[in-house]
């Protein structure tokens, strides 16, 4: 037996022995303290036993052993999650599918073994068509996973799955209902078509990425995920309706339980759904029974313990922690704050304000730890979106059920559900666009500890504030001012900055100053929000030229953020229009904003204000792929090697910007410009290991900027590249560790200022 399993078994046995001893003493002495200790140790024994069983399941059998040797095996699998299609930044590699499954038989080295082991499968796009509950056969290479994972191994399956059996009848029926809901809103705009299924049953497969980001910034993510909110709204509608029809007492309990079972089946019986069902029932009971706080706390405690006994891995789940904290906030703080507000406003409005306020405050430290930010508009967004959530959810459930009878009536119900969904989308988009929608917060032990203490202080003092209308209005006025006129970080941006490498994650976003509120922007990162925020912090309202070095998404994906509320005169692009899909997206966005797009010309020289630059590359453009859908798996892709290379000059400094240039193109640039020198070098391709040492030695930069995302999957910047720069005596600055970086120069002496990590 593995060491971890032995430890868990010993722990469980020890806790059981202590429990029995304490129980004997408690029965003899009738001591309340001893009975409390009995309860605690018995729970510890139960959790230790559950943990031992789970560890034993994940670490024993042939699959973990095969994974440690990276062996190939044939597997019979039962699919336990919906397939999720993933892609790499910049679409440098083909998309792939991720799903979870339970291995029921493994055949390796000529031996077939019956097992029941959870695995994580990485497959080709052919796997996106498998369904939850299906039985499939495949072959693949097994790999070990990190300790503490909720699966025993990872399987890489290049072959298409062979279907052995269909899902159970009730899963097929649930999928038919889900498909009916999707069909009922198929004629609606993309964001509505994605949101209604997410509101009703947590089906996020069609949610546009921009809307997901807006929901994250405004604290509305719980609406689109499977959460207790979905079930609470459903029960809050069905139970009063049943009461009007004459159902009483135990009948209401039966109706409620049937709705819970139906919800779990429709939303898929997975741990997150079971957790949501339990938390939703607790929150509903706390707010509707009028019972004591002690009873609500007991219900919450029982739900948490039961869920942990069923799946001890939930103890490491951020989603579980947020769900419990939100419910605890509603249970412990919500009623008192509701009563305080109800002294001077209608009860319904007081309840609508107190619930999101309590939940948000309880979750704030964990959210800050996970994201490095605090949403300042979450409570207001939830308050404004709240009245529309119920109608959208109930009408969506109605559309799903009606679809079994009539598709025309279902489309009518879907059309009705789309209108409250449109309001929720408007709230999310408007809130996310506010200048101070979120405030960065250090995701460190000290930072989160301070935030936790602040939240605890608020829980103590907020009750007094909520009873005074004038105090509440004053707090709201301050919050509105902060959101509309956010205070910039102290010392940022530094005076007389000349270049800023924005913190855009795994990508490039560079800003070259040309005036007080004007700058040339080179690349925009993968996401619009960080790029927009960086330019806001710098006060940039005019971009005379925006350069996209090439059309990979980590350089062009954030274009909309740079265009937001700014005057952009023109967009310069590489003459190599690939990948075609990203090129067409850039063209469409530029056309919408009526901005001309112009390919650069080799050796052209331009001047704007104090900034002058020369295009050093590409000298010649390789032919485009004959297949527009073709993708390049190799890092030395033609897109990278067709990156625009600029040598900029300002205030006596030479700045070399290199896009994602690879070694072969670096050598070509040197051949065309053998006297290349630069004070500042933007290191090619985020500091990847593929660099030409001669390129660095010739440029002889005093300062090297590396733009990369923290903990990125590519290992950028590579240790080899860092060593290469260090040996040449170059000072290195990295966005993955420092956040946005501004460069200033006084008397030809370079200085850098870091903004710090942003969300």
Largest sheet: 8 strands, mixed
Large-scale geometry: globular
Distance between the termini: 43 Å
What number of structural domains do the residues give? Answer: 4
In brief, what are we looking at here?
The chain has 759 residues and is α/β, with parallel strands linked by helices. It has 27 helices and 26 strands. It is 50% helix and 18% strand.
Ordered list of secondary-structure elements with their pairings:
Blueprint: H1 3-29, H2 32-59, H3 62-68, E1 72-79, E2 84-86, E3 96-108, E4 111-123, E5 135-143, E6 153-157, E7 162-165, H4 169-184, H5 190-201, H6 209-217, H7 221-224, H8 228-244, H9 250-267, H10 271-288, H11 293-310, H12 318-332, H13 334-342, H14 347-371, E8 373-375, H15 378-402, H16 407-433, E9 438-440, H17 445-466, H18 469-484, E10 499-501, E11 510-515, E12 518-522, H19 528-538, E13 542-543, E14 546-548, H20 553-556, H21 559-563, E15 567-568, E16 571-573, H22 580-592, E17 597-599, E18 605-608, E19 611-617, H23 638-641, E20 645-650, E21 653-657, H24 663-672, E22 680-682, H25 693-699, E23 703-706, H26 719-727, E24 731-734, H27 735-738, E25 741-746, E26 749-754
Parallel strand pairs: 4-6, 12-14, 13-15, 14-16, 16-17, 21-22, 22-23, 23-24
Antiparallel strand pairs: 1-3, 1-5, 2-3, 3-4, 5-6, 5-7, 8-9, 10-11, 10-25, 11-12, 18-19, 19-20, 20-21, 25-26
Helix pairs in contact: 1-2, 2-11, 4-15, 4-16, 5-15, 5-16, 6-16, 8-9, 8-10, 8-15, 10-11, 10-12, 11-12, 12-14, 13-14, 13-17, 14-15, 14-17, 15-16
